[in-house]
Amino acid sequence: MRRRNLRVCTAVIALATSVTAIARPRSTFALGPARLAQPALDASVARPRLEAPAAAPHAVNLPNPTTVQLLFAKQELQVPQRLRLIVFAPHPDDETLGGGGLIQRVLAQGGTVRVVYVTNGDGYVDGVRHEVKRTHTSTSDFIQYGKRRHDEAVRALDSLGLQTRDAVFLGFPDDGIDDLWAGHWSARKPYTSPYTRSNHPPYKESLDRQVEYAGTDLDHQIERTLRDFAPDWVLMPDPRDRHPDHCTTGVFVLDALRRLRHEGHGLFARTQVLTYLVHYPDYPASPAWVRQIEGAGVGGSPTASKVLSAAHWVNLPLNSSEVAGKRSAMSEYQSQVQVMNPFLRQFLGSFELFAQLDAAQVAAVPVEYAARFRRTR
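Now predict its structure.
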């Protein structure tokens, strides 16, 4: 990020520095159902537990978050005509939360969009319990939940102007993407989902049901989707996101891009990389995250923090039609809507924020994160 942008905000941000950082994990969207237990994600938590109780937010008067965040990301993102955009979503609904407005803008400009869902979101314990109306859950419950989220994603994309053929479902394990990077890289040692009890995609709609739940297989699947679509822009989760599926999905995408560029694919040398946040303390409800993210590394760790601190933030103002389309898409995710009201609604405002990563950051982040686990890239 650029320090001159931070200086513009310093006086306003100072009002928020005494606030304890409260992450906004997935809480409740519809007004009726009771709030389910959610995690409090702070800097000391490497991997949030979905069933951990949330900390109660502190009452505090903060500056207008829209004003502060737009001062921070004051450059407006310009979307060219006939752009090819690929969006990576760790779970169904992340594409809408992070880039529903951008997807519509690209289509309106005569462009083409493909959305890649890394998981079916089948490991959300509280969501499944709410769905089945009991605390005891079975493997079948989680698989049925993943099927429902697939169908919701298809309908949500229709609300954004896309069709079923514009979606790719990889079917990798929800709440397990970081495990593939850290401990199950080789297909000789695949990961088994504790929810679906499977070590490969259990869904017929998945791109390749023969792949194993292994880092090498996910890496190759992401590279395959990039080669097949040949995007001008890539939109992916920010590596600094505090949810392990989000931050590690971002690293996997960067690793595939790094390799494609290293192999001399000239097309990918020109590909622009944008990132979006979903799970980060105080994002997007208050401006406190602006100060906190300056020294953040992958998933809240120190890894690649220096490299990522140079990321430049931009904003995309949404028109009324784009806001309405984003809200309509989000309403299709009833499995999430029924249990996540305040959190999800924060992303349905009048602008979207993205960080831009340059070639040096694309190359360095996955290498540094692999070195953390004593693996070379």
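Residues 3-10+27-36+61-372 form a domain with the Rossmann fold fold (CATH 3.40.50.10320).
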